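Annex B. Sample input.
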Amino acid sequence: MSLAEATDEALVERVKRMAGMAREPFLPAAIDLLSGMSRAILADSETKLVPQYVALAYWMRGAAVKKLAKAFLNTIPDGEILAPRGLALHLPPTNVDTIFVYSWALSALAGNANVVRLPATLSPQAQSLLRVVSKTLADEQQAERNLFGTYDHGGETEREICRNVDLRIIWGGDAKVEKVSQIPIRPDGLTIGFPDRQSLTLISAAAYCSADDEARDDLAARLFNDAYWFDQMGCSSPRLIVWLGDNPECRDDLYNRLEAVIQQKSYIADPAVGMAKFGLANDFLAEGVAASARRYSNELQVAEVSQPKVALQRTTGGGFFGDAQILSLDEVRNFVSRKVQTITHFGFSHEELISLARSIAGVGGYRIVPVGEALQFESTWDGVPLLSHMTRRIVVR
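Annex B, continued. Sample output.
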């Protein structure tokens, strides 16, 4: 029974039964479930053609999941026994159609029973992914503990569901987190909210200018993956490119190579998005936020900004980048806020990145990863160690 097929009364009764279906964390059956789902995604004629689904499948490989489990279990002190949190409710965003699987997968590993409320309308791609997920759950006889579908927000059905929930994970904007959080879950339950986020890319101009053509092309391809897989609307998709050092020729070279990748990948922006980018560029120019703007194509527009903080806050998606220059990494602190999630980087040493992390600690920026890994999901997200929150601890002395 899916949520779409259930009456409100049957749905609530189903969720109540699921509240008692949690299991011991990291059982071999849970690892095998994710491994089997990984193989199914890579074997399916539709999902295997979608790059972000292939990345999801590799993340769920048996070896990768075992490594993840081992690393987490090594953090548990002697005298503490892991237990599942119970029943988890996942509320994924509408703009990143893999988050619902990543969020569910970690919780399933933690032993929880899971309800995943999906958007009312799914893209054809997302429908194909959901089909593979549902079939794998049925084949592995795990469908009773894991429910995917939709229900109306704000009504009594949602309130009845939430009364049984031990863990609620809200992925979405500030307004969604605030609104949903007003509905109570179990008194000892935990709600984790992932609100609006912004991300940027940091490039050493000296490193880029000294790189050969192969390295430059590779960087452009990885930047494309970070920005365009979800139309630049993912929270970790960069909307601002910050250059340490100034070399206009090298900056233009990167954008020309990015434009070549866009053409190669046959990415096409909606005409309305193209008009929105044109409008935002002119707004930036009129307001003094940008000194110049260049339209490389309908899919790529770059505004040279003097106010990077403003450029981070305003975007259209679909290939609009602010472009800023700094003379020292210390300047990053000036435009990073608690809204900033991911900083991708190119051309910096490990020591420089550690220094950057320390300088922005407590200010913002929760992930500092290489260009090309912006959308790579991790069990610590937005500074939150998810597996720790998805489990409980029993102290034994």
